[in-house]
């Protein structure tokens, strides 16, 4: 996540989560570019986005590198399992 734009990302996330049609949606956060030295850690991303304040919603954050294909399968598996279990 881009440290310079994390505030904008948080504002957008909060706005989206307040939408009525998304009230029951699960949330997957992909902390991408984890292959870059000095990138934000998972805990830094979670803190910057205020994930600990999310109540009444299932969410998970994943460390990913789209360039290397790391973490994407795990994220999609979690999403699939969560949605399948929610039915």
TrEMBL record:
What GO molecular function annotation could you give as one example from this UniProt entry? GTP binding
SUPFAM superfamilies attached to this UniProt entry: P-loop containing nucleoside triphosphate hydrolases (SSF52540)
**Which lineage do the record's taxonomy fields give for this organism?**
Eukaryota, Metazoa, Spiralia, Lophotrochozoa, Platyhelminthes
Question: Does the record carry Nucleotide-binding as a key word?
Answer: yes
Coiled coil residues, start to end? none
Record keywords, A-Z: GTP-binding, Nucleotide-binding
Query: Which species expresses this protein natively?
Result: Opisthorchis viverrini (Southeast Asian liver fluke)
Query: What residues does GTP bind to?
Result: 32-35
Top-rank taxon? Eukaryota
Q: Does the keyword GTP-binding apply?
A: yes
- What is the protein's given name? ADP-ribosylation factor family protein
Q: Do you know which Pfam families this protein is assigned to?
A: Arf
